[in-house]
Write a structure and sequence with these properties.
The chain is mainly α. The protein has one domain. It has 2 helices and no strands. Helix 1 packs antiparallel against helix 2. The longest helix is centred in the last third of the chain and has 27 residues. The radius of gyration is 14 Å and the shape is elongated. Pfam families: CsbD. Belongs to the UPF0337 (CsbD) family. InterPro entries: CsbD (IPR008462), YjbJ_sf (IPR036629). This is CsbD family protein.
Length: 60
């Protein structure tokens, strides 16, 4: 179960980060672009954790 939750959260964070980056670039807000990049990275990390949990059977 944890695998699916992590993957969903990861996808949501990655998508939100991409949106923030796009808005930041459009408005010229470098802070928002950086925040979006961090959130996208967090999402990718969560997805990776979900894959690891899937491979290990949620035993971690």
């Amino acid at each position: 179960m944890g695998e699916l939750v992590d993957k969903i959260k990861g996808n949501a964070n990655e998508a939100a980060g991409k949106v923030k980056q796009a808005i930041g670039r459009e408005k010229g807000d470098e802070r928002l672009v950086e925040e979006g990049a961090r959130q996208e990275g967090k999402g990718k990390g969560q997805q990776f954790i979900g894959k690891v949990k899937g491979a290990l059977g949620d035993d971690i």
